[in-house]
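If your schedule permits, I should be very grateful for your opinion on a structural question. I have a record of one protein: its chain in single-letter code and its fold written as discrete structure tokens. Would you kindly read the sequence against the tokens and tell me how you understand this chain to fold? Thank you for your consideration; the sequence and its tokens are set out here.


***
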Amino acid sequence: LSTHIAITDLPEALPGMLENIHLNQVENYANIKLESLELCWGNVGQYESCISKFNSCPVVIAADCIYWTSLFAPFLQTVEAFCKIGATVIIAHVKRWKKDSIFFSMCKKKGLTV
């Protein structure tokens, strides 16, 4: 089985991600294609580019992404784009503030299962 993994972050984080990929020798793993991609939440061109990299519906894992309320809408827009192609989106989250529930309410209003 061949596995395609894309890890995403802001452009300033890409050099560190590439270094970690190399340090962990991921390129030596058989049947794994791993790439780091720039993805600013809410940037239609960037998430469409990410989506186009996959031949099948991806599983998206987002960890520790719900922290600034100003990013709730762009993050949700990006999550929705992946859901529209049939992706499974898993959000790992530790509740820290009451405001965190705002994001999950936004998801429910869009018809997403929380």
Remarks:
- Strands lie at 3-9, 32-38, 59-63, 88-92.
- The helical segments are 14-23, 44-52, 72-84, 100-109.
- The CA atoms of residues 3 and 32 lie 5 Å apart.
- The first strand starts at residue 3 and ends at 9.
